[in-house]
Design goal:
Elements lengths: L7 H8 L8 H9 L2 E2 L5 E5 L1 E3 L2 E8 L2 E7 L6 E4 L8 E9 L7 E13 L2 E11 L14 E3 L1 H4 L3 E5 L4 E5 L12 E4 L11 E6 L2 E7 L8 E3 L4 H4 L8 E3 L7 E11 L2 E10 L8 E2 L1 H4 L2 E6 L4 E6 L9 E3 L1 E6 L4 E7 L1 H7 L6 E5 L2 E2 L5 H15 L4 E8 L2 E11 L2
Parallel strand pairs: 5-10, 6-9, 15-20, 16-19
Antiparallel strand pairs: 1-9, 2-12, 3-4, 4-5, 6-10, 7-8, 8-9, 11-12, 11-21, 13-22, 14-15, 14-18, 16-20, 17-18, 18-19, 21-22, 23-29, 24-25, 26-27, 26-28, 28-29
Length: 403
């Protein structure tokens, strides 16, 4: 699986499944409320693109906070540690739970005001929640998420090449002529929340969430869909996972169609962590300048690079950083390789080639993961030393063509 196998996406999806504690009409009103104070505006804000995730700075009371830009989040999210920096009114309080959160209290609120660049959004439906559940996943502290309850109040353009987000009240301020591709998004029956895009993957047709908060892979589905993808060629499926865990899969789809875009030989990830949700994320959209017209449920895509045919090539083991423990962990791997070498969950990396990775500070791990790790994993073979249940073990892993 990808380095970010344990993603924040599922947690956000679980968090915003909040229909149960409010009447639908009131919840619809809460989600769709809000305006933009500026009457005619055309602004932009730089973003940091980190491992497929978009982060922007929000300035509140002269303090800078780190927010994820996430069209897949059903609501804007504020960390409880900073919520008192904002003016808000309480809407409701409830408990949520999910695969990665056993139990948590959320306060659903109306946020009086929040600025992105110099544009001020008023009366935005939001959720106050303890975001410390994310601290092992991200190098920089996450202070909030800009979700669909705010995003749908404006027109947006994401320029992945120049790492700039533009926002305006008029779509004509963002695009002067119609881009090459247009996708239609579909709003949920409840009348608010994450919108979806229809995909056809080797004959399997379904709706996938339009999710700029998904940095894991281009296209992600759930393993319970495996039978929909294995009719023609069972041998093309690659299995991942530990011995006592559920199995994840990857395969190459021969044909992927969405709207008027047709692609060949694309990697599809089937991951248990996404629950029953299917995702289309930044790894796809980063190939375009993406303009979002929420009012008309249209995405305009102007290509900036070709989406090439892919071959599934991977090491036998995949790793991910734990920024809380300051260790690099075995996240997953080829199921047959893991079984053969008796590798279990909780195994950590001590050394890769001649580099000791066992005693990093928090910042050293951040720097190593963002700069050195991509260089190291460009190699075809890695000599690694792992630690499992107090015992070290040397292993050689190689990059293989899997399908």
């Amino acid at each position: 699986m990808t380095i970010f196998k344990t993603s924040i996406v599922l947690i956000l999806i679980a968090l915003f499944s909040i229909n149960s504690y409010a009447q639908n009409d009131k919840l619809l009103e809460w989600a769709n409320q809000g305006t933009v104070k500026n009457e005619n505006y055309n602004s932009e804000i730089p973003f940091r693109y980190v491992n497929g995730y978009i982060f922007i700075d929000i300035i509140q009371n002269d303090k800078k906070y780190n927010f994820l830009f996430d069209s897949g989040a059903e609501a804007t999210l504020i960390d409880k540690s900073i919520i008192n920096e904002f003016e808000f009114e309480l809407f409701s309080t409830s408990n949520i739970s999910g695969p990665l959160i056993k139990n948590g209290v959320v306060n659903t609120i109306t946020l009086s005001a929040i600025k992105i660049s110099d544009i001020e959004f008023l009366d935005i439906g939001a959720v106050a929640f303890d975001l410390q559940v994310f601290k092992s996943k991200l190098c920089e502290k996450l202070d909030g998420v800009i979700g669909s309850t705010l995003l749908k109040k404006a027109k947006w353009q994401i320029d992945y090449k120049n790492k700039v987000i533009r926002l305006s009240n008029e779509i004509s301020n963002l695009i002067s002529e119609k881009p090459k591709y247009t996708l239609t998004t579909n709003i949920p029956e409840k009348g608010w929340g994450t919108e979806t895009i229809g995909l056809n993957i080797d004959g399997y047709t379904s709706q996938f969430n339009f999710d700029t908060g998904n940095g894991r892979s281009k296209i992600v589905s759930h393993p319970n869909k495996i039978k929909d993808f294995t009719t023609n060629n069972n041998n093309s499926i690659t299995e991942y996972g530990f011995k006592k865990s559920t199995t994840d899969y990857k395969f190459i789809a021969k044909n992927v169609t969405l709207g008027n875009i047709a692609l060949n030989n694309q990697t599809i990830s089937l991951e248990n962590e996404v629950g029953n949700i299917q995702l289309l994320g930044n790894r796809f959209f980063e190939n375009f300048i993406l303009t979002i017209d929420w009012k008309n449920h249209q995405l305009y895509l102007d290509p900036i690079k070709d989406i090439v045919s892919e071959t599934l090539i991977d090491f036998e083991l995949n790793f991910s950083p734990n920024f809380e423990t300051k260790k690099i962990e075995v996240a997953t791997g080829l199921r047959a390789f893991i079984k053969k070498n008796k590798i279990e969950q909780g195994t950590t990396l001590l050394k890769v080639n001649d580099t000791d990775v066992s005693n990093f500070s928090h910042q050293e791990l951040c720097d190593f993961w963002n700069t050195e790790w991509p260089k190291i994993t460009n190699a075809e073979k890695l000599n690694i030393l792992i630690l499992q249940k107090g015992k070290s073990k040397e292993i050689v892993i190689t990059k293989k063509k899997l399908t």
